[in-house]
Design goal:
This protein has one helix spanning 2-52, and strands at residues 92-98, 105-114, 120-121, 127-132, 137-139, 141-142, 151-152, 157-165, 176-182, 190-193, 209-210, 214-215. By secondary structure, the chain is of the alpha+beta class. Strands 1, 2, 6, 8, 11 and 12 form a six-stranded mixed β-sheet that branches. Strands 5-4-9-10 form a four-stranded antiparallel β-sheet, with no helix packed on it.
Length: 217
């Protein structure tokens, strides 16, 4: 009888031990799952913060990830910052013509055509020197006029003007032979012939003025 009671107690003890072991195993699995979930969440959070702090190609911090870089370099002739670059002398076909409106006012139109493959800017004042037959050259001063935005697509033209008073006395001391033109924001120049038929300059070369570029459209 005593043997039977001991056996029964032993059986109950074994059952309790197995039950406790099972409970511990479940808790362990839950903790592992919780840790895995936390790790995954932390990884996703790190990835998201990395995307929001992405750096664009021009080195500027972008707040919207790839969306903020969409405008960089967009469009023909645009640089990585999205701005149109200035026209290069080598990409411009440049010509000068007499455009005097009357017999007392001298005007020369200098036309620049974008023969390049990309859009460029010719905004501002061109640099102009007048070369005389005595082989001296004289810079032309700027007229009082604000620059106008002058953006040229391939094939578009821009014009700027030289203005002066015409000397009809026949005693002008100026004998121009050439124009040396440097497009706005460029350092390379081209040499053009002084337009045939242009009136004589009254006064000195310092009395001639150059005006900003504008489009012909």
């Amino acid at each position: 009888m005593k043997y039977t009671r001991v056996s029964a107690l032993a059986a109950l003890g074994l059952a309790a031990t197995l039950s406790l072991t099972a409970c511990n195993g479940d808790d362990s699995g839950s903790d592992a799952a919780a840790n895995g979930s936390s790790s995954s969440s932390s990884s996703s959070s790190g990835s998201a913060s990395s995307g929001s702090g992405e750096t664009s190609q021009d080195g500027a911090k972008s707040e919207g990830g790839s969306d903020s870089k969409a405008g960089a370099g967009a469009g023909s002739g645009a640089s990585k910052t999205g701005k149109v670059t200035f026209c290069k002398t080598a990409d411009l076909a440049i010509d000068a013509a007499d455009a005097a409106p009357d017999e007392s006012t001298g005007r020369i139109d200098v036309t620049m055509i974008n023969r390049g493959s990309t859009t460029c800017s010719a905004t501002g004042f061109a640099g102009v020197d007048i070369k005389d037959e005595d082989n001296t050259s004289n810079p032309v001063g700027r007229g009082h006029a604000p620059p106008r935005v002058t953006t040229l697509k391939p094939g578009d033209a821009a014009v700027f003007n030289l203005a002066y008073d015409i000397d009809s006395s026949g005693d002008s001391l100026s004998h121009p032979t050439n124009l040396m033109v440097t497009p706005p924001n460029e350092t390379h120049s081209v040499t053009l012939k002084w337009p045939e038929g242009a009136g004589a300059i009254k006064g000195a070369y310092t009395d001639v003025e150059v005006y900003p570029t504008h489009t012909t459209n």
